[in-house]
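F.,

This is the one I mentioned.
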């Protein structure tokens, strides 16, 4: 009789501890969810973050952005409408003659190891 009372008390204690653990996990989940929502709201208020996601067509760039890519540090060669601009080239007058005013589609060409080989710009129009 005494053993059965001890067993019941142990099961009740275990159930209470298990229940408290579940309550603690639910509380931590709610706290983490709230924190994630606040961080998301704060990050979307930052204009620098929103600016990147505010573009309807993420792969499209303007001719001015291509000028900036050519003038800036080029780690990879660039191809503008089948005209190659080497990564170390500096004949900007020639390179800028390849570019028409308007929108371009930006794509990346990868090698077999998923490393970027070249950046491709295809003219879409104005």
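My design for it:
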């Amino acid at each position: 009789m005494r053993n059965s009372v001890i067993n019941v008390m142990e099961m009740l204690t275990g159930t209470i501890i298990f229940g408290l653990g579940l309550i603690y996990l639910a509380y931590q989940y709610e706290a983490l969810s709230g924190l994630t929502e606040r961080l998301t709201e704060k990050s979307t208020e930052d204009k620098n973050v929103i600016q990147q996601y505010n573009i309807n067509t993420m792969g499209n760039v303007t001719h001015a952005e291509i000028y900036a890519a050519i003038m800036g540090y080029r780690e990879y060669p660039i191809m503008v409408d089948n005209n190659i601009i080497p990564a170390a080239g500096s004949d900007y007058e020639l390179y800028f003659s390849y570019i028409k005013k308007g929108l371009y589609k930006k794509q990346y060409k990868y090698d077999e190891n998923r490393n970027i080989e070249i950046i491709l710009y295809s003219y879409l129009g104005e």
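The beta strands are 60-62, 78-80, 83-85, 103-110, 116-125.

Talk soon.
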